[in-house]
Amino acid sequence: MSTEQDVFDAYSQVVTTVAEKVLPSVAALAVRAARGAGAGSAVTFTDDGFLLTSAHVVAGATSGTATFGDGLETRFDVVGADSLSDLAVLRVRATGAPPAELGDADRLRIGQLVVAVGNPMGLAGSVTAGVVSGLGRSIPARDGRRVRLIDDVIQTDAALNPGNSGGALANSNGWVIGVNTAVAGYGLGLAVPINPNTRQIIGELVSTGRVRRAWLGVAGAPVPLPPPVAERLDQKMGLRVVEVVPGSPAGVAGIYLGDVIVSAGGRPVSNVQALQRLMLGPAIGTRMPVTVLRRGAFVDVVTVPAELD
């Protein structure tokens, strides 16, 4: 019995410590737009009043009200939103909330303890805990009339409800490693990861209010590389090309159906996420070498990614 109690106390200690660290940084949002009133959560990540939330929480709005756990209520302005990552940056007009520390979701492991902090169903300062149930998930996101996928999403069994979107998903150190974005069903929550890719997106939203993306024009699926190739490259997987858009940068460069992309821009490509991480603003209009495996031989091509409309 004492052993069970000790384990429970250790678990409780982690959750309470994380809650105490993250709760002061999280705000409840009240939003009014043409589509009606809405609510959500946001997390402070800088000393000068920048907050991170979900793009769908503030869709169609330019401002709203943020309320913090200490009772501070202040107006916020939407600095920028990116529907394809479901991330948005806000700035409050009265600062004072301590910034949360952003972590790196690329270091997460399935089964790892995570704590969700937000304001579900209008219940301010709510905390739930669970584990990472899956990594690399995809969820649909609408951009106007088009539907694209948000890739590399974290799946967790920490209870999430309407109003949690935009809140923090933290690890046992109290570092925010995700932004809660959706409830996919009973016992299933999803969060956009904080990693080098989304940090770049956040940085662009802060500095310019928008995110420019590059477009290569291929669709692919991960496949194991032949053992000799895997040993030579020290890389187990590549990305098999299953579609090339006619006239796209990939098509013009000479990438064909059945090619297996193993690197792009000098970086290994083992899945769709690895390629998408390269398709941000700096890649637009620049020469990007791509190495493919074609009928057992390495072929180098040079692509010039175009800006995604």
List keywords for this structure.
six-stranded antiparallel β-barrel, alpha+beta, 44% strand, 309 residues
Q: What does the model show?
A:
By secondary structure, the protein is α+β, with helices and mostly antiparallel strands. It is 17% helix and 44% strand. It contains five helices and 20 strands. It has helices at residues 2-22, 196-208, 227-233, 249-253, 272-276; strands at 26-33, 36-44, 50-53, 63-68, 73-82, 87-92, 113-118, 126-143, 146-156, 168-170, 176-185, 188-193, 214-215, 218-224, 237-244, 260-264, 267-268, 288-294, 297-303, 306-307. The protein has a six-stranded antiparallel barrel with strand order 1-2-3-6-5-4. It has a six-stranded antiparallel barrel with strand order 7-8-9-12-11-10. Strand 7 and strand 8 (126-143) form a beta hairpin. The termini are far apart. The model has no long low-confidence stretch (mean pLDDT 87).
